Amino acid sequence: MARVSDEELHQLAIELGDKLRARGWMLATAESCTGGWVGQLLTSLPGSSEWFERGFITYANAAKVEMLGVSEEILAAHGAVSEQTAGAMAAGALKHSHAQAALAISGIAGPGGGTPQKPVGLVCYGWALADGTVMSSTCRLDGDREEIRSRAVAAALRGLIDLIG
To answer: Fewer CB near the last or first residue (10 Å), C or N of the chain?
Structure first.
């Protein structure tokens, strides 16, 4: 499967920005395997300062704990790549920002690092809203590292677009 095109990512970013702007909301992001790709994409749009508040790049578990308040118990019980951790990352991004919406991504982009239980391409997402809504999901993406990461960015954006309607 191919990498998500820059144009498709750009259009998703515009759509999300329009939805956030229409509600007067700010967004915070918490990224692990995508390493700030969502933040870079969103801030490439003129006017994104109206709706993008901040991004956390929390690649290491210690960063997830220190910056987002993800509990060590969640990490020990479920691992960094889990819906529980992704949901806690999104909720933590809200708590540690002034945003009303947050998204989080944690996964195994490869080419190494996978296990039979958590193979390369496993990506978990979290989304949180200021009203207390926290949602998460998991998918398995095929492809090389770049393909997995670009598709994870697109899926995280689509998930938040769908959640905020």
So the answer is: C
Question: Residue type at 74?
Answer: I
Structural domains for the chain: 6-164 (3.90.950.20)
Mean predicted lDDT score pLDDT of the chain:
97
Going by C-beta distance under 8 Å and a sequence separation of 6 or more, which residues neighbour residue 80?
32, 61, 64, 106
pTM score, whole prediction: 0.97
Q: pLDDT for 128-160, tens place per residue?
A: 999 999 999 999 999 999 999 999 999 999 999
Beta strands in the chain (DSSP E): 27-31, 52-57, 101-107, 122-129, 134-140
Least Cα distance to 122 among 88, 85, 90 occurs for 85
3-state secondary structure of 24: coil
Strand partners, 28: 54, 102
